[in-house]
Amino acid sequence: MNKRRDMIGSFLCRRGLGLSKSTYAAAFRQTVQTESHIYNKRRRTICSSYQCKKMNKDTEIDMEEVKLNEVDPEKQPMTGDGQAAGNEKNGSVKLKVPEDEVTFTGLSKEELLRVAGTPGWVRTRWVLLVLFWLGWVGMLAGAIVIIVQAPRCKPIPEMNWWNEGPLYQIDDLDAFCGGMEGLKEKLDDMTQLKVKGLVLGPFHRVQKDKPATLNLELIDPSFGSLDKLKEVLERAHKKGISVVLDLTPNYMGSAPWFENDDEIMEKVKSAAEYWLKRGVDGIKLPDLSRVSNSTEWPKLRAAVQGNRTEDAKIRGLMGVVQGASASEVSQLINASGVDLVLSDLLSSNNGGAERIRAMDVLHSQQRSLGWGLGASSGVRLSSQAKAAGLIRLYQLLLFTMPGTPVFTYGDEIGLQAGNGTKMVWNLESESEANGTEYAEVRKWFKSLSDLRGKERSLLHGDYYSLYSSPSSLAFLRVWDQSERYITAVNWGDKAETLKLSLTPTEGVELPETAKVKITTDENQEIDSSISLDKITLGPRQALLLQFPYTA
Predict the structure, then answer these.
(1) Where is this region: Disordered (predicted)?
(2) Is 106 within a domain?
């Protein structure tokens, strides 16, 4: 491009010297051709491959521009003697001046004010304002109608920590984990199982059937020390686990309260106050039907349940009842004022009809009711569920019944019954058959505990019986607009067909089908649909069905 400018400058100079037009035009064309020839020769010498091709294209464009500029040399400005064509003066340059572009700059303030005051715009503004307020009022009215017509949410009942998850009893710390030091390390396992409360002991000092040796405020050194217990309490509370102490006075003898109830009750009351001040969250007592009739019972209740405020954590009073009917348990809950009653109704009643009747009587008191199978006497679930498959069945039953499920250590893996049985922690070290079964049962237990903690229908929902027979039962759990659940179990040795029947209840209906949520039957697919007209369960099989709320 520089050479081209030099060439044009030389052209202009020559015109300025007065050369004729024809002579100058010929000289200019010759100059252009000569320069182009020299440039092309140099380019062919230097360029190669793709860059050369690209340069060719650029050069050709440049030279075309030069040729276009010299098409009519007579139109070039001149300073010589010759006269330019078209009456153009020598040395003048013609420029094309673009016409002024018209741009809209808007109205001025005065113009806007004049326009805004016209009748047409005034009417338009009023119409828009009225439409805006009509739309706003219409949306407000629609929202109010939706709120009024929407089904009202049922108020959540008052729940305490012993209602929120399973309770886990450890009566033998040595067999469970080697003492209190080991218990602190096993709290993570309890958290995984969604355990909300540990029931420890008894481990106080006493000699069998000797009330004079009773000291409920001292820990037997064979179980641990007060400092170790404080560490357990601190760590458990950080993980959201409450701790209950079993203060059964004569736990080594045959009569748990010895003979003199009032004298022992005074010691129990003092011990309860002592342990509660040190961070314990509750007290468990045996033979509630007997001890609640003591003259010292109101004082003990006051020691445990007194000074309850909204900010303070509630301390629980837990009592065990054995050999009582469902009606007697219900009366005891009302009369004693205890926070949680653990009965042996499931253990003492083996028939489905009796178990259903017990739930029919007690379901309205579910927040004060604990269910266990062997837990009331400190034995494991396997003592009642001896046949293969029954461990899972009874775990499902306990987690879905109206009340708090209570287990003894080892129940989560189906540990076999027996006093002093060591807890199995390293499942891989067991024989292949036992280790696999323990692991599968623990996984099943955890899934049920997780589900109960998330579903309001199972956590505190209403209960309706659907079916019962000597070896099977079925019931429904519902809560407001939450998912509904049907539990159906058959602990018999033969298959059975369950014909579900719901007493007419406002707002509660059974659909034609429900979805399989959990099942012990390997042939039944999870999330498959099943007809509720007739449910056939194989021997020792359990089924948890789910269906949604419909308005």
Answers:
(1) 72-92
(2) no
What CATH number should be reported for the domain holding residue 505? 2.60.40.1180
Q: Specify the DSSP class assigned to residue 505.
A: B
Structure token pair of residue 98: 């673009």
Element (H, E) at 350: none
Residue 120 within a domain: no
Interior angle at CA 510, CA 509 and CA 513, nearest 5: 150
CB atoms within 10 A of CB 130: 10
Q: Is residue 68 exposed (0-12), middle (13-18) or buried (19+ Cβ within 10 Å)?
A: exposed
DSSP letter (8 states) at residue 517? E
CA dist., res. 248 & res. 285, Å (int) = 6
Going by C-beta distance under 8 Å and a sequence separation of 6 or more, which residues neighbour residue 312? none
Residue burial 523-533, b: 16+ Cβ < 10 Å; e: rest = eeeeeeebebe
What span, in angstroms and rounded, lies between the C-alpha atoms of 254 and 127? 92
The pTM (predicted TM-score) of the whole model is: 0.75
Tokens of 85: 């064509």
- If asked whether residues 448 and 464 sit together in one domain, one would say no
Classify burial at 369, counting beta carbons within 10 Å of its beta carbon; exposed 0-12, middle 13-18, buried 19 or more: buried
Residue of 84, 73, 71 lying closest to 12 (CA atoms): 73
pLDDT in tens, 45-99: 554 444 544 444 554 445 444 444 444 444 444 444 444 444 544 444 455 555 5
3-state secondary structure of 120: helix
On the 0-12 / 13-18 / 19+ scale of CB atoms within 10 A, 402 is buried
**Domain co-membership, 467 together with 381:** no
pLDDT at 125: 87
Query: Which domain-ending residue is among 454, 472, 487?
Result: 454
CB-CB neighbours of 97 under 10 Å? 5
Task: Give one DSSP letter per residue of 425-487, joined into a string.
Answer: --GGGS-HHHHHHHHHHHHHHHHHHHHHHH-HHHHH-EEEEEEEETTEEEEEEE-TTSPEEEE
Q: What angle do CA 504, 509, 510 make, to 5 degrees?
A: 115
Q: What distance separates the 2 farthest-apart alpha carbons in the chain?
A: 148
Which domain range does residue 515 map to? 460-550
Among 438, 454, 470, which residue terminates a domain?
454
What is the helix (H) or strand (E) element at residue 493, kind and residue range? none
Asked if the structure places residue 317 within a domain, the reply is yes
SS3 call for 318: strand
Mean pLDDT, rounded, for 24-52: 59
Q: What is the mean pLDDT of the chain?
A: 85
